[in-house]
Amino acid sequence: MQQAPPQTAAQPSTPAKQPVSQGTTGAEPKPPAPAALAKVADIPAGGGVILKEQSLVLTKDASGKVCAFSAICTHQGCVVTDVGDGTINCPCHGSKFDASTGERVAGPAKSPLPAVAVEQRDGAIFQA
């Protein structure tokens, strides 16, 4: 009969090496601050700017109040391209929306542009 090899005492396992962090204080790092959508000064009074990447339109009335709306027309989903004469204008079928409320004022769209919550601080506009 064959004998089983002699049992040896289990070797203590060595702990995995932990990465050494340098210069940490133990506090979690802060996430980066959100980027401003636009500077208030860059939005013309009585007009607006279209932010295609965010699908937003920012408007500013004569008193300096900034509003934000979806830049997607509620008629067939085209992106609005112009703000002028108090309206946000869609180039596809001629829908027009009130620049201060987003309400439909002309064209085939039946619904207003949805409002988007924004806040103004330090001379810039941020999504809320």
From TrEMBL:
<keyword id="KW-0411">Iron-sulfur</keyword>
<dbReference type="InterPro" id="IPR036922">
    <property type="entry name" value="Rieske_2Fe-2S_sf"/>
</dbReference>
<feature type="region of interest" description="Disordered">
    <location>
        <begin position="1"/>
        <end position="35"/>
    </location>
</feature>
<protein>
    <recommendedName>
        <fullName>Cytochrome bc1 complex Rieske iron-sulfur subunit</fullName>
    </recommendedName>
</protein>
<dbReference type="InterPro" id="IPR014349">
    <property type="entry name" value="Rieske_Fe-S_prot"/>
</dbReference>
<keyword id="KW-0479">Metal-binding</keyword>
<feature type="domain" description="Rieske">
    <location>
        <begin position="35"/>
        <end position="127"/>
    </location>
</feature>
<keyword id="KW-0408">Iron</keyword>
<feature type="compositionally biased region" description="Low complexity">
    <location>
        <begin position="1"/>
        <end position="19"/>
    </location>
</feature>
<dbReference type="InterPro" id="IPR005805">
    <property type="entry name" value="Rieske_Fe-S_prot_C"/>
</dbReference>
<keyword id="KW-1015">Disulfide bond</keyword>
<dbReference type="InterPro" id="IPR017941">
    <property type="entry name" value="Rieske_2Fe-2S"/>
</dbReference>
<dbReference type="Pfam" id="PF00355">
    <property type="entry name" value="Rieske"/>
</dbReference>
<keyword id="KW-0001">2Fe-2S</keyword>
<comment type="function">
    <text>Iron-sulfur subunit of the cytochrome bc1 complex, an essential component of the respiratory electron transport chain required for ATP synthesis. The bc1 complex catalyzes the oxidation of menaquinol and the reduction of cytochrome c in the respiratory chain. The bc1 complex operates through a Q-cycle mechanism that couples electron transfer to generation of the proton gradient that drives ATP synthesis.</text>
</comment>
